[in-house]
Amino acid sequence: MTFGVLSLVSLVAFEAMAVATAMPVAVRALDGLSLYAWSFTGFLVTTLFATAVAGQLCDRYGPLPAVAGGVGLFAVGLALAGAAGSMAPFVTGRLVQGLGAGAILVGLYVLVGQVYPDEFRPRVFSYVSAAWVLPAVIGPLVAGTVAEQLSWRWVFYGLLPLVVVPLALLSRPLARAGPVAMVERRPGRVRHAAALAVGAALLQLGGQQLEQQRPLLGA
Fold first, then answer.
1. Distance between CA atoms of 100 and 30, rounded to whole angstroms?
2. In Å, how far from its chain's centre is CA 132?
3. CA atoms of 11 and 4, how far apart (whole Å)
4. pTM for the complete prediction?
5. Residue ranges in 18-120 assigned as alpha helix (H)
6. Which of 136, 182, 151 is CA-nearest to residue 84?
7. 3-state secondary structure of 128
8. What is the CATH architecture assignment of 2-217?
9. C-alpha–C-alpha distance, residues 101 and 124, integer Å
10. What is the pLDDT of residues 142-162, one digit of tens each?
């Protein structure tokens, strides 16, 4: 089970950080410089939104719908980005990946909290944190090499078969895990998450536009 958890976290971390080195190649191929920022901003925004929605799912139904649905969305996003013929569907794929990533992470944290005994739980959470390190260190090199030597599309296609094995390994623990708590539905939580996501998008896009204008201001 631990291998399945860490594998899924590593795949999400790879798509969140390591693909940065493949993005310039993809943008040139798709002639989509104007939408380049949304490749990253969109992923972040939908991840933030999905964490709130997945939290409600886990409260009511347990981590199974969040993890299984998240893996499905993540895989669909990978396929959309890899098959994109222009920048708009590529960004759409990144948006869907973000939804899947947010749901996966929340569901996995809930799963670890429910299934592991108290004495092992801190150690497993430390492993989960460490699972972000390897993709951050070697992931950019791997993604850049794949993009240059094969195709930027394989940075996304290559992960598709890798999401199946961890989900299979986690199928039994997910089936055993139950709802976090029987709580009332709170639509306001989703609205707040949507507002937070929009705010994050505006801040990030504003910062990127300022960076683009800085050479003009200094001229």
1. 24
2. 12
3. 11
4. 0.84
5. 23-30, 36-61, 63-83, 87-115
6. 151
7. helix
8. Up-down Bundle (1.20)
9. 19
10. 999 999 899 999 999 999 999
User: b/e string for 103-127 if b means 16 or more Cβ within 10 A?
Assistant: bbbbbbbbbbbbbbeeeeeeebeee
pLDDT higher than 80, residue 195: no
| Chain mean position to CA 58 | 18
Closest by CA to 148, choosing from 6, 28, 2, is 28
CA-to-CA dists, residue 3 to 8, 38, 93, 98, 168, angstroms = 9, 32, 27, 22, 11
Is residue 96 within 8 A of residue 175, CB to CB? The reply is no
Residues across the chain: 219
DSSP class of 85: S
Structure tokens at 145: 């090499």
pLDDT digits (tens, 9 = 90+) for 48-83: 999 989 999 999 999 999 999 999 999 999 999 999
Is there a contact between 70 and 107 (Cβ–Cβ < 8 Å)? yes
Which letter, b or e, does each residue of 20-38 get, where b requires 16 or more Cβ atoms within 10 Å of its Cβ? Answer: ebbbebbbebbebeebbbb
Q: What is the C-alpha to C-alpha distance for residues 86 and 101, in angstroms, rounded to an integer?
A: 23
Residue 101 has phi, psi (to 5 degrees) of -60, -45
Type of residue numbered 50: A
> Which pLDDT value is given to residue 68?
95
